[in-house]
Amino acid sequence: MSQARASRNPVPWRWGLSVAVAGLILTGCAALPEPDGMEAAIIARTEGLEALAPAEGSGARSVARNGLLLDPAVREAASLVSASADEVRVQRAALFPGLGLSVGGGVGSAGEGKAAAELQGSQLLFDGGNSKRSVKLADFDMQISYLTFQKEVDEALITVLQAYDDVQMKVDLLKVYRKQLDALGELETLVAARAKKGAVSSTDVLETRRRVQSAVFLVNDTELALAEARDRLALLSGQSTGGRIAISGTSCNAGGESDDLRLARLELGRARMALEKAQNALDPRVVLQPIVRAEIGTGKVPVGLNLDIQSDLLKGGALSAKANAARNKLAAAQARLDSVGREDTLEERGLLRSIAAGDQKRNLLQRQISLLSQTRELYRSQYFDLGTRQLSELLDNEEEFYARKAELAELESQLAIDRMKCVARSRNLRKKLGLEGQSIYGYPLASDLI
Fold first, then answer.
1. Which pLDDT does position 449 carry in this prediction?
2. 450 in a structural domain
């Protein structure tokens, strides 16, 4: 009688074990931790920041803001950061329980037999730390992507502001060349009047006319360059009106390590981790696999627990090749770090030297322009009133006067750009442009580094 009751109540302890195993797996899958590492730091830094919005107006701040929103490279870099965050989650998932469901059946001696549903879990117990190394590698990639994104933001700001200043510089050059054309046209009229009276030869008239035509070419070329500069600015910022950028700071020092140097250090750290992982590729992988199998139509629910141990012993030389490749990449990363360190120092010195030389040259040009202005009046008097000065000397002086004014306009633009790059290098550009305290594509526009 007791045996009959047992058959009507098939092994209740198996049902309990099945439920316990399934519950354990589902609980593990549902209890995955919150983002950590670099991703958690970025989320905390971005929380509460206002999203960057388009700006009205045509000033440098508005151009910078709109240029960031329109720059595809910034959007691409932000997407790569998001992809890197997802890859961290992918690699981290190997450390937590997995769950799979399969349903199948078959006929014949080689078939799977009666239809059954199988619920199989998995939990990594040991792999020599390689899964954790994969997570660290993914986190290195995310840090590199995030720093690359922040670099791209600065480069986008510099690019759009350079285009903004370039339009204004072309406007200033066009004003100079038009004044030169007017001045030479005035001289042509005066020389032609003297030639009509027989005071000078027709050669002077032809020479003056030739100089006027050269000035016309300069005006036409500058008008074309201005149109192209406006088109480029419109492409980058949505507006074609340029202006002078007046952004300067007290130092070009990066306040620690520059972005390029930080990137090189991150790449070196990643290379070391990749080598460590390659050297431990032979470590065994131990996985616990609980199984619940329900045979459809039989009422049977067998359960089990497997322990899977795997290890790569030989893969045709691939394991040693991967280790050698990792060593070579580590050596390359170290060489890159050394090179960037030297270049970083030279870049700062170069900016400071360029600014100092530019200031000195500007003073020289201003003095020379003042002297040429005085010489213009003297040469005109000597040619038209006294007849003691050659026309070629008068025309050469006139062209040099306006050439120096054009050179000064170009120098002012270059100095403004160098000062802006200096501010960007010291991580103060975003503050100067009023971009701090805002975010773009879900990432902070902060000058400080996470």
1. 63
2. no
CA dist., res. 240 & res. 272, Å (int)? 49
pLDDT at 450: 64
State the average pLDDT over residues 405-434.
Answer: 94
pTM of the model: 0.85
State the total domains in the chain: 1
368: in domain: yes
**Mean of the pLDDT values across residues 80-101?**
90
- Residue 116 in domain: yes
For residues 18 and 332, the model is more confident at: 332
Range of the domain at 293: 2-444
Which stretch of 7-11, 14-18, 113-117, 442-446 has the lowest confidence by average pLDDT? 7-11
The least confident of 40-49, 54-63, 104-113, 381-390 is 104-113
